[in-house]
Design brief:
385 residues; 7-stranded mixed β-sheet; 3-stranded mixed β-sheet; 13 helices; 13 strands; 41% helix; 15% strand; binds pyridoxal-5'-phosphate
């Protein structure tokens, strides 16, 4: 990306519209990391002066991440990814739960990190209920109430969906979970810095690379009363809860990105609102938005068009980075489980594309990209006719 590092645009040629897959690293995060890559190499868990300096930098970063999460009564432990944080939260909560609480309740539209971990736990004797969602991608709270009772150890629900951007009512779901004595895990990977993190959550998983930080680091925020059993054993780092030498560079980069996300919360939100309006205006008629429009983070636009071949559209426009759904689903060629869950047919799923934009996207480049997407889609129709 050269001179455009952090902007997500390569010399005006490449337009990056895949913010749900990952985000461009903020220049502030990159420069905070630089000394910890180039000069300072101490082990943050060693007692030397250098080690203590690295440990102190990690503690500053931890506070910055905790402040961006904004909840009280608990603390965050760093992990290698949000996937690890989610695995840890689910497996570690299940391990500590009394035998009579052997159920986990989750949602059909969760990320694979949740669904596959639940599937694995099923093979270990857990009973898993995956709640369906409506055409708008949202849960029906009466169905949530009906599914949760005293046999449930954990309820896992995502805040902002990574494919269709819809926002689940996690606080209400958590209250229902608590009424039955179950804990609540919120996958807030796409929500951090964008929508308020639900107060009622006991466990919150986040990831640096979705908020303009580096890849390879996430965190699990845990309420004091809800610490899961450790997933990774070893040297006893992170209060004995998550062993492994921490990377000061990655922690500091995450901290800087989190601080920026907190400081720019309002500016980023207003910018995203403007981008959303500009995108829709440029797109023109003939497109349908997948999932709720009102209950949505507007830096995500998942749209479909009758007869469109989404995969072909992507290969026709190599200079615009967009996707068919989650990064994992795009690679596998499998139809998106999220679009299936909101009731789309295979045909409608294939004709859907996901656009993600944010802090470093300009209205002009987005509008230009939308016009090109619309034109290319209409050309496809002409050839198909
Ligand atoms: N949860 C959601 C909603 C995501 O979008 C992602 C990343 O795609 C993850 C979890 C996993 O995050 P990580 O890449 O840090 O493992």
């Amino acid at each position: 990306m050269g001179a455009n590092r952090g902007k997500g645009v390569d010399e005006g040629r490449m337009i990056y519209l895949d913010y749900q897959a990952t985000t461009p690293v903020a220049p502030e995060a990159a420069s905070a990391m630089a000394p910890w890559i180039e000069e300072k190499f101490a082990n943050p868990h060693s007692p030397s002066r250098w080690g203590r300096e690295a440990a102190a930098a990690i503690e500053v970063a931890r506070k910055q991440v905790e402040q961006a999460i904004g909840l009280s009564g608990g603390s965050a432990a760093f992990t290698g990814s949000a996937t690890e944080a989610i695995n840890w939260a689910i497996k570690g909560t299940f391990e500590k739960a009394p035998p009579a609480r052997n159920r986990i309740v989750t949602v059909q539209t969760e990320h694979a990190a949740v669904l596959d971990t639940c599937r694995w736990l099923e093979s270990q004797g857990a009973e898993v209920t995956s709640l369906r969602v409506g055409r708008d991608g949202l849960l029906d709270l009466d169905e949530v109430r009906a599914a949760i009772d005293e046999s449930v150890a954990l309820v896992a629900a995502m805040l902002v969906n990574n494919e269709i951007g819809v926002i689940q009512p996690v606080d209400e779901i958590a209250r229902i979970a608590h009424d039955s004595g179950a804990l609540m895990l919120c996958d807030a990977v796409q929500g951090l810095g964008r929508v308020p993190i639900p107060d009622e959550a006991d466990l919150v998983a986040v990831s640096a690379h979705k908020i303009h930080g580096p890849k390879g680091i996430g965190a699990l925020w845990m309420h004091k009363s809800a610490e899961p059993a450790p997933l990774i054993h070893g040297g006893g780092q992170e209060q004995g809860l998550r062993s492994g030498t921490l990377s000061p560079a990655l922690c500091v980069g995450f901290g800087a990105a989190a601080r920026l996300a907190s400081e720019r919360r309002h500016a980023d939100r207003e910018h995203v609102e403007r981008l959303w309006a500009a995108a829709l205006e440029a797109l023109g008629p003939g497109w349908t938005i997948n999932g709720s429009i009102d209950q949505r983070y507007r830096g995500n636009l998942n749209i479909r068009r009758e007869g469109l071949d989404g995969a072909r559209l992507i290969s026709d426009m190599r200079d615009i980075a967009l996707s068919l759904g989650s990064a994992c689903a795009s690679g596998s060629g499998r139809p998106s489980h999220v679009l299936r869950a909101i009731g789309l047919s295979d045909r409608e799923t294939r004709s859907s594309i996901r656009l993600g934009f944010g802090r470093y996207t300009s209205e002009m480049e987005l509008a230009g990209a939308m016009r090109r997407i619309d034109e290319t889609a209409r050309k496809q129709e002409k050839f198909a006719a």
